[in-house]
Amino acid sequence: MKRYCLALDLKDDEALIAEYEYWHRAENGWPEVRQSIIDAHITAMEIYRTGNRLFMIMETTDDYSPDAKAAMDGTNSKVQEWEQLMWKFQQPLPWAKPGEKWVLMNKIFEL
């Protein structure tokens, strides 16, 4: 099992943040997007928010590949539609590379 922790900012607008949370409730998520996550060998995913900053924790099988996931997403029209919708609410972290949304975090402590 692998664990990935990623960060991303939302636009600092209460109405947009509320709508973003609406889309992430279980009953409002898109089944095709959920299936694409499962198909990529992601076994668990959680997103946490503080203010307008998001933290995503993903657990994956050992054969998960971020590059393979990106390639799969690039050919999935429903995932692309979802990403377009989500970009309405999201903004890159100041240190994100061009075109990068979620930024991989480095673990600096473990108990």
TrEMBL record:
<dbReference type="InterPro" id="IPR011008">
    <property type="entry name" value="Dimeric_a/b-barrel"/>
</dbReference>
<dbReference type="Pfam" id="PF05336">
    <property type="entry name" value="rhaM"/>
</dbReference>
<dbReference type="InterPro" id="IPR008000">
    <property type="entry name" value="Rham/fucose_mutarotase"/>
</dbReference>
<protein>
    <submittedName>
        <fullName>L-rhamnose mutarotase</fullName>
    </submittedName>
</protein>
<dbReference type="InterPro" id="IPR052996">
    <property type="entry name" value="Carb_Metab_Mutarotase"/>
</dbReference>
<dbReference type="GO" id="GO:0016857">
    <property type="term" value="F:racemase and epimerase activity, acting on carbohydrates and derivatives"/>
</dbReference>
